[in-house]
Amino acid sequence: MPDLADSLIDQFVLESAESLSDASDALLELEKNRNDPDAVDRLFRALHTLKGNAALFDLQPIVGVAHIAEDILDTIRKGRQEMSGPLADVIFSMIDQIATWVTAIERNNKLPADAASVSDELQARLREYSLHEIKPGPSSQADFSWADSMPAHAWMDISKQGQPSVAVLYTPDKGCFFSGDDPLQIMRELPGLCALQTSFRQAPPSLSDHETYTCHLKFMALSSAPMTEVAAYCRDYKDQIAIRASGPHEAEPTQEIQDTASFRQIITAQLRILELPDLLDGSKARLNAALQNIGNALRYMKREDALEQFARLQHNITELQDVAELRRFVASLLDPQMAQQAAEAPAQQPETGRKFLQIEQGRIDQLLNLISEMAAAKNNLQYLAERAESVSREFAVELKDRAALVERITQEMQDIVVNFRMTPLSSIFKRLPRLVRDLSKELNRKVRLTIEGGETEADRHVIDTLSEPLLHMLRNSMAHGIEPSEERAAAGKNPTGSIRIKAYHHNNQLIIEVQDDGRGIPAQKIKEKAAASGIISAEEAERMSDADALQLIFHSGFSTAEQVTSLSGRGVGMDVVKSTVENAGGRITVHSEVGVGTRFTLALPLFIAAAQMMTVRVADQLFGIPMQQVQQSLKIPRKSIRKIKKTETFVYRDNILPLLRLHALLDIPATEQNELAVMIVRLHHGLVGLAVDDFLNPVEVVIKPLSGILKTVSNFSGSALLADGSVLLVLNLEELMRGH
Amino acid sequence: MAIKYTDEMAIFEGKCTLHEAEPLHEWLKKTPQGKVDLAACQYMHTAILQVLLIAKPVMTASPEDAWLSACLANNAN
Question: Chain A residue with minimal CA distance to B25?
Answer without folding.
Answer: A212
